[in-house]
């Protein structure tokens, strides 16, 4: 076995490819099976959840769209994603600009605060936050949840934007200042256009995390008409999972298909952003 | 550099010190203030107040009644708590070994590939971007008794593998950990791969000249080369293992019969189902305490001269 894994003095990479391909099957085999199951009749799925469909039907998809209430939940999720991404890019962008470019007094303390708070568990502040939000009328309120997402995504966003902005030479900003531009104009007209790749990365990562988020969404949005795609899918899959597999599988495919496509199109940016986010906690 | 130019610009046109003070000190603060206020309202304030609530009996609606350390005394004798804590330790052990080993093996196999390296990196990363509810529902189907993978195993002559993994007290926790890991290990692999690709090639060439085989290379060149990333991820794994929630909640809700309960599940149930918000805050505080201990251990090791 050892000789197979680590053969002496050969440059053959065939064993590497074999093992990596097995891992690829482990990683995406379940997704392929998911697509198969979404095309099965209930009877077919009830017999076997692993193999090919005996007969391919597409009707699970429109059925899942209706039963899963995607028409109602998708707008909620899209509002949360758009609101959080826009607010994060503006507010975290401003903070990153101040730290990177304006010699913010006390920026060291701020960085420490962000580092420590980004490793705090949600469970620590979840309970008091929920009761505070209820007092403020922000439970069952999309804006209320957006504010929370903006806060929890802030440390990562500020770190990533700041580290990009630091590398931008100050000449352009100084030229704008000579022309009489205020700091807001410098930020908006000079720094944002120059730092757009970092803004795009942050937007993608934050958007993905909001799209996928479960715990906060399930705690703060308890009314059915405010459910997100994810929280509603959870209820849908508990109601139909274990008896209508084609239906729940079709719902799942509809939810992850846009994610996987977007990821494959921009995988370098996603991976960069997510791994940096992971390293920053 | 930036400050020098700014000074030259502002001093002739704006001679007043107050105006200068405004431009140098106030404007930068104004840029940070909105996000800082939001963050303090959402994270800092509630985090601090949970210390107070942990000392109270509180149903979450009415007034909180101060009861001193009674919640923490209750923790020491609460069977559910002790069981959940043990489960968190099992979770920790699982995530310190299996994903790390899988990610190290995969990354070291992919690193030398000249063709397909980027492709494998992207494909193996896909499970990490999926929502936890989907991942959980996929694996609930795959691990279904009789018609899932267990049924396949039974047909291949291994009927002992055909069991309801999420429904048995002896397998529920590990099944949830397995699902979490399916989504997690590829992310870890990419981190290790990135670190491995920055290990200088000369070190491998030198090792080859010394007659090292691939195993020797892995132990003496690759592992030391990625040590900062590896140690950091061990640290983060340690912290996250005390905070894990999603996958267990979605697959088993802590069941059956509390078999897969974690501390985070107890917080959730106490706060939102049993209306013991004070007790929930106390449990949440202990979770942060355990995560803090992990950080402390690493700090001590670092002071003792470990290069972390």
From TrEMBL, chain A:
Its main location: membrane. It comes from Anaerolinea thermolimosa. GO terms for cellular component: plasma membrane. It is a multi-pass membrane protein. PANTHER family: ABC TRANSPORTER PERMEASE PROTEIN MG189-RELATED-RELATED (PTHR43744), SN-GLYCEROL-3-PHOSPHATE TRANSPORT SYSTEM PERMEASE PROTEIN UGPE (PTHR43744:SF8). This is Carbohydrate ABC transporter membrane protein 2, CUT1 family. Gene3D superfamilies: MetI-like (1.10.3720.10). InterPro entries: MetI-like, MetI-like_sf. Residues 74-266 form the ABC transmembrane type-1 domain. Keywords: Cell membrane, Membrane, Transmembrane, Transmembrane helix, Transport. GO terms for biological process: transmembrane transport. The chain crosses the membrane at residues 12-36, 78-100, 112-133, 139-161, 190-211, 245-266. Belongs to the binding-protein-dependent transport system permease family. CDD domains: TM_PBP2. It comes from the Bacteria. It is found in: Cell membrane.
TrEMBL record, chain B:
Its main location: membrane. GO terms for biological process: transmembrane transport. InterPro entries: ABC_transporter_permease (IPR051393), MetI-like (IPR000515), MetI-like_sf (IPR035906). Residues 85-298 form the ABC transmembrane type-1 domain. It is found in: Cell membrane. Keywords: Cell membrane, Membrane, Transmembrane, Transmembrane helix, Transport. The keyword Kinase does not apply. The chain crosses the membrane at residues 21-44, 89-111, 118-139, 182-199, 230-250, 277-301. One of its GO terms (cellular component) is plasma membrane. It holds the Pfam family BPD_transp_1. It is a multi-pass membrane protein. Belongs to the binding-protein-dependent transport system permease family. PANTHER family: ABC TRANSPORTER PERMEASE PROTEIN, INNER MEMBRANE ABC TRANSPORTER PERMEASE PROTEIN YCJO. This is Carbohydrate ABC transporter membrane protein 1, CUT1 family.
């Amino acid at each position: 076995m050892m000789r197979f894994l680590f053969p002496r003095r050969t440059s053959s990479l065939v064993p590497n490819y074999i093992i990596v391909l097995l891992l690829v099957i482990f990683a995406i085999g379940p997704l392929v099976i998911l697509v198969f199951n979404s095309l099965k009749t209930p009877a077919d799925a009830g017999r076997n959840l692993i193999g090919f469909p005996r007969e391919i039907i597409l009707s699970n998809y429109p059925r899942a769209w209706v039963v899963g209430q995607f028409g109602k939940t998708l707008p909620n999720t899209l509002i949360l994603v758009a609101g959080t991404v826009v607010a994060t890019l503006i507010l975290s962008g401003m903070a990153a600009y101040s730290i990177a470019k304006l010699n913010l007094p006390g920026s060291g303390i701020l960085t420490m605060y962000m580092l420590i708070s980004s490793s705090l568990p949600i469970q620590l502040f979840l309970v008091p936050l929920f009761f505070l939000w209820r007092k403020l009328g922000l439970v069952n309120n999309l804006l209320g949840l957006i504010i929370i997402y903006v806060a929890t995504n802030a440390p990562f966003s500020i770190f990533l934007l700041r580290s990009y902005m630091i590398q931008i030479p100050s000449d352009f900003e100084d030229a704008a200042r000579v022309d009489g531009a205020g700091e807001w104009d410098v930020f908006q007209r000079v720094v944002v256009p120059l730092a757009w790749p970092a803004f795009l990365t942050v937007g993608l990562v934050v958007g993905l995390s909001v799209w996928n988020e479960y715990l906060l969404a399930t705690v703060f949005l308890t009314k059915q008409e405010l459910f997100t795609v994810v929280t509603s899918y959870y209820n849908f899959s508990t109601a139909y999972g274990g008896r209508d597999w084609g239906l729940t599988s079709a719902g799942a495919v509809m939810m992850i298909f846009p994610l996987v496509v977007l990821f494959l199109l921009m995988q370098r940016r996603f991976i960069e952003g997510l791994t940096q986010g992971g390293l920053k906690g | 550099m930036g400050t020098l130019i700014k000074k030259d610009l502002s001093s002739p046109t704006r001679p007043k010190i107050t105006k200068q003070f405004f431009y140098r000190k106030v404007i930068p603060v104004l840029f940070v203030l909105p996000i800082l206020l939001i963050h303090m309202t959402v994270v800092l304030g509630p985090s601090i107040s949970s210390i107070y609530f942990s000392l109270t009996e509180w149903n979450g609606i009415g007034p909180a009644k101060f009861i001193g350390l009674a919640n923490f005394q209750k923790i020491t004798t609460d069977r559910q708590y002790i069981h959940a804590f043990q489960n968190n330790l099992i979770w920790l052990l699982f995530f310190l070994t299996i994903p790390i080993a899988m990610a190290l093996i995969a990354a070291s196999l992919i690193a030398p590939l000249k063709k397909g390296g980027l492709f494998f990196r992207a494909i193996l990363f896909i499970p990490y971007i999926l929502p936890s509810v989907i991942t959980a529902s996929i694996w609930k189907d795959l691990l279904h008794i009789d018609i899932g993978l267990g049924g396949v195993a039974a047909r291949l002559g291994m009927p002992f593998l055909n069991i309801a993994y999420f429904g048995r007290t002896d397998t529920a926790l590990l099944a949830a950990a397995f699902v979490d890991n399916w989504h997690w290990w590829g992310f870890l692999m990419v981190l290790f791969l990135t670190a491995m690709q920055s290990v200088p090639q000369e070190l491998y060439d030198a090792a080859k000249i010394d007659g090292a085989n691939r195993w020797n290379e892995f132990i003496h060149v690759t592992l030391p080369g990625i040590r900062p990333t590896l140690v950091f991820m061990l640290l983060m794994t340690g912290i996250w293992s005390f905070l894990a929630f999603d996958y267990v909640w979605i697959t088993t809700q802590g069941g059956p019969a509390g078999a897969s309960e974690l501390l985070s599940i107890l917080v959730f149930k106490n706060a939102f189902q049993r209306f013991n918000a004070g007790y929930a805050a106390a449990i949440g505080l202990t979770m942060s305490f355990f995560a803090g201990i992990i950080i402390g251990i690493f700090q001590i090791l670092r002071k003792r001269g470990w290069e972390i």
